[in-house]
Amino acid sequence: MAEVQVEVVSRDTIKPSSPTPDHLRHYKLSFLDQIQVPVFMPLVLFFPRDDGTSLDEKRSRIKLSLAEALSKFYPLAGRVRDNAYVDCNDEGALYVEARVRCELSDILENPVPRVMNRFVPCELDDVQDLGVAVQVNFFECGGLALSLLISHKVADALSFFTFLNAWAAAARGDPGITDPCFNSSELFPPINISGFQTSAGIVKHNISTRRFVFDAATIASLREQFTDLNNVAAAADQPRRRPTRVEALSSFLWSRYMASTQPIEARGNKIYTVLHAVNLRTRTEPPMSERHFGNISRLAITVPTVDAGTGGGYKIVDQVRDAIKQVNGEYVRKLRDGEDHLKSLKERSSRVSQGEVVSFSFTSLCRFPMYEADFGWGKPAWVGSASLTFKNLVVFMDTKSGDGIEAWVSLREDDMAKFEQDKELLALVSPSVSVQSDAI
Q1: Which of 152, 276, 292, 341 is catalytic?
Q2: Which of 139, 144, 212, 438 is most buried per CB count within 10 Å?
Q3: Residue 439 pLDDT > 60, yes or no?
Q4: Active site residue 374
Q5: Which helix (DSSP H) or strand (DSSP E) does residue 211 occupy?
Q6: Are 151 and 131 in contact (CB under 8 A)?
Q7: Residue 397: which H helix or E strand, with range?
Q8: Residue 235 pLDDT > 60, yes or no?
Q9: 340 is known as an active-site residue
C-alpha cells in the first residue's frame, strides 16, 4: 500500500448536551477498573460516500449526537483522577477532524493495521485522564472513517459497543436509548492497589500487528477436526461437545505460535499460559444486564499441559473450555473481595516480567454489534481495529458477512516473522485481504 497521508485540520472538545447533576459528579472506579491497563480501546468505522447526506450535515450530526450521548454516559465526558474516581466535570471528549489524501477504496483493498493508527486521534497508550476521543477522517472520494477511542480504565468491550450504538442511535434521532447503569463500584468495591503496575504489559517498540482472515468453511472444518480428535481421545460413551468458533480458532493459533516461535529445546522451565477475556455479566448470580457499564470482565487463565500444542492442538480446546467454565458465580463472589485477586495478579505480573511465565491473550469481539452503528447514512462498509501496544495478543472480529473471523495478531517483530511464515497457518488463512466484496 502506498503511503497514506492524513492531515489533521481541526481539534476541538465536545461537551455533554446537558450538564451532569452535582450529585453524580464523583464516579468511583471499581476494583476491576483500577486494575485495568491504562490504554485506549480503538475501533475505526468506514462509511462509503452517501449522496443523500452532505459532509457538512454528517459533521454536524456526529458532533451534536456525541454531545447527546455524553450526557447519558457522563463519566466518559469527565477526567480520571488518581486511578480512584472520575471527576464528572463535563470537560468533554477530544474531537479531531482530518483529511485523508486517498480514496476509501485504497484502504479497503488491503487494510493494514499500522495504517489504521493514522485514523485515531491519540497514541493508544497516551490515555492520560481522558475517557473518550474521536477522529472523523474525510476521504477524497467523499467517504469517511470515524474512529472511537474509549479508555479501558472506565469501560470494557461490551460497554464500548453500548456507547457506540447509543451514539449512533442519537444521530439517527432514535429516542429509545436505554439508560446505562453506573454502579460497578458497588459490585466490585475499590481497594488499595499500591505496588501493582497497571501499565506493566504495555510495549511500545518492536511490535508487529497483522490481520489474518479465516472464512466460514475453514472455521467449520477446524471445529470438526477438533471434535473428531477429541472424540477419538475420549471414551466412546463420552463424546465431547463441538468447540465454539473462538475456542477452535484460538486453540489453533496458540498451537501455531508455539510451533513456530517456541522451539521445544528453548522452552526450559517456562510456564505458558493462555488467557481469554470473559464477560462477567452473564456469570453473576443473578445475571447482570448489558446496561451495566464499566469493566465487568476478567481473564480465564489456562495453563496448557506440556503436550497441549501437539497432535493438532486438540488438547488445548478442552483445557480452555474448562478454564472458562471456572469463571462462574463462585469466582465472581471471590472477586468481589479483591485482595486475593490482587495478590495473584502481582505474583503473575512479577513472573511474566522475569520471563518465567509466557502469556498469550485472546479477546473476542465476535457477535458484538459492531456493524449496527448506523448514524443515519447506512451501516459501516467495514470496521477495523489498529496496531496495539501489547505482545502475544489476538483480537477476534467478525467479518462483515458475520460468518468469517478476522484475527488481529500482535507479536514481537521477530516472532511475527516466524509466525506469518508458518505453513500450517498459511494453509488456512484466506488468500484475499480485501474487504471490498464484503463492504459492498
Answers
A1: 152
A2: 144
A3: no
A4: yes
A5: strand 207-214
A6: yes
A7: strand 393-398
A8: no
A9: no
